Amino acid sequence: RNVHTSTSEVEQRAFWMLVVIFRHFGLECLYAPGLPSSMSNSASQINPQILYTKFNGLLESQLPALKKHFENESVDFADIYTRWFRTMFTEFDLIPPSTVARLWDIFFIQGWDSLLNCVIALLSLLEEDLLQLPLEGILLYLRTIQQQRPEIYHIDPNFLLNMKLASSLK
What we know:
Oligomer: single chain
Largest sheet: none
Structural class: mainly alpha
Helix content: 55-70%
Number of strands: 0
Strand content: under 5%
């Protein structure tokens, strides 16, 4: 006898899997009004303020010229944070779905720090271009990587992961 699962049952399973993932990794705090005051004990759970602080710290230590340029151009990291981290890169403007899937693998295994290092590695590939752009150009560029730099948009996820590993060893 061949048993098929109904579409609604598959949708229910997917929904409850999403709930488990959100609870396990503390992702619901990314959407809560106001910022939580402390980080969870788990390396994968983080509140938005700590995520923002860690991202800024990595940008400062790994790409100081780019960080300074972003500050000079008044780049609002709230926009970047919302589009990248709150959506877990599913808007696909920075990287394609296949690379997002690899980043999720890294996130599920190694947590936020590893994911942040991957983003810094990607930004390092774009740094030269970004340093030449004013505020509006930076924001447009980061939303149109596929058209601007298709070779980076379609980067081999393993290359990006190797860059992340190399930068974390510095």
